[in-house]
Write the structure tokens for this entry.
Amino acid sequence: MHLTEQLVAHWVHELRRKTIVKVLVVGSGGREHALAWKLLQSPRVQQVTCVPGNGGTASMKRCQNLALGVNDFEGIARFALVNGVSLVVVGPEVPLAAGITDFLMDQGVMVFGPTRAGAQIEASKAWAKELMLEARIPTARSAVFRDEQAAQAYVRSQGVPIVIKADGLAAGKGVTVATTLADASEAIAAVMGGQFGEAGNQIVIEDCLTGQEVSVLALTDGITIRPLLPAQDHKRIGDGDTGPNTGGMGAYAPAPIVTPELMERIQTEILEPAIAALRKRDIDYRGVLYAGLMITPAGDPQVIEFNCRFGDPETQAVLPLLDTPLEDLLLACAQQRLGDMPPIAWKPGAATCVVVAADGYPGSYQKGHPITGIDAAEAQGAVVFHAGTQLKQQALVTDGGRVLGVTAVGETFDSAIANAYAAVHSIHFDGMYYRQDIGYRVKTVQSDSS
Ligand code: AMP
Ligand code: GLY
């Protein structure tokens, strides 16, 4: 580059960095609290508005909640336009799949999050499978059915274990890993019998993969794609990965199973081909592409699923380690200039998030119990991200299944895990439940901190 061009580029970059930004975050979970918290660490982020937010986002300085639904696109657009919001960041998949990005962009609002067409990568597993096949992205062999008898016959011909998936969005409940033919048959009947509504119009049946699951959340502007630190979630409710699946009971980053060599393969064999395949379909995908991967015993990455958004609770473990200002990255994605950004910078060390839930979750649970001890937990250096909480007459009460995500960082995993559990022990509410073994894969000190 010519010297003057370099100076101009530097000047434009500096000017951009100094411009004040107002961000609107759509969603109400721990992920959205973490996004708002990270954004507010930048002095130039003047204000974050969360729609509808939770008790945690209501309590942060320079942050406010706006009582609108995540699917109230008109209300969100109106607020963004009237208040000069620079960027809308969409947390959950439902509004993305319903076209919030298309709607807001039509109104001239800048959005971080894919269009409805791009969100199909999560909203239709059959669509995502076709894209992976076309792009030669490694994934389990699968077949798609619209007819129940044909699906049942296929399963009988394949045997077990086998994985049955509702095609559409089912709030994380549409997947059954069947170990008996009876379970498989029951799962097919449930999906096609309408248990998940239209999400079950098609069914994807795929081979069962073994290995360790890893979440790679990558930021993309539709051309360039850059992974964040790899994370591992704990999906089952019980210690030792037992019991039913949940939205996620805890996470840590950076997952050591993803070596730099493996990340390079994930980049070239999965992330880049996915973006190229989306572009081939005329989809200009700007947001997070979340690759849910199985690392097979041979060490190969296979895609279990793609999501069109940040993971929850992975985000709560990844963002505390991010050193680059988050709004710089999100704006660069939305403005399609991620390729001009310097490499994403990270703090050293490790982070662990322990999810604290209401007893009974993922089944039925009570709400409205007062929560105490958050200040004490934070005084120990942890960050407590709220998920299902509400501020009621200045008192914090439980308001969901996953209530809090208690995150701590440390020089090592052992210290991050110990710090997170020490903070959890300061917190109390009636019927509080959490897994005792978050991070068991990366822990070396077995003298229990929990
Ligand atoms: P998904 O909603 O596609 O992420 O699936 C939920 C969970 O089901 C995953 O996190 C895995 O634990 C499991 N799962 C999905 N697909 C497979 C597969 N092909 N092999 C083994 N486990 C799977
Ligand atoms: N932690 C799993 C998810 O966000 O889908």
